[in-house]
Amino acid sequence: MTSDNQSSDTPTATVTKTGTAESPIFAIAFSGLKGATGPAYTLTDADKTAIAQQVLASMTNAEEVSY
After folding, report:
1. Does residue 23 have a pLDDT over 60?
2. Distance (Å, rounded) from C-alpha 10 to C-alpha 33?
3. Residues 1/29, Cβ–Cβ less than 8 Å
4. CA–CA separation, 42 and 60 (whole Å)
5. d(CA 13, CA 32)
6. Which string of DSSP letters, residue by residue, matches 1-28?
7. Model confidence pLDDT, tens digit, residues 31-62
8. Is the pTM of this model over 0.70?
9. 4 or 49: which carries more pLDDT confidence?
10. How far is CA 67 from CA 19, 22, 25, 52, in A?
């Protein structure tokens, strides 16, 4: 995700899809946002696993789904 850090009354987001149909990748570029830009962060494998487990835990009958 990127941000141009420009002040505007109309924030926008541009989504670009790459990758394959089986494994899509989405890049999101925001513009017209207010405020300071924070540091960039890349999700680690541990982050991805934790997120997947939290999502699965919130789903009904998710015990048959694995990551």
Report:
1. yes
2. 8
3. yes
4. 29
5. 9
6. -EE-----SS-EEEEEEEE-SSSEEEEE
7. 888 877 788 888 899 999 999 888 888 877 65
8. no
9. 49
10. 20, 15, 18, 7
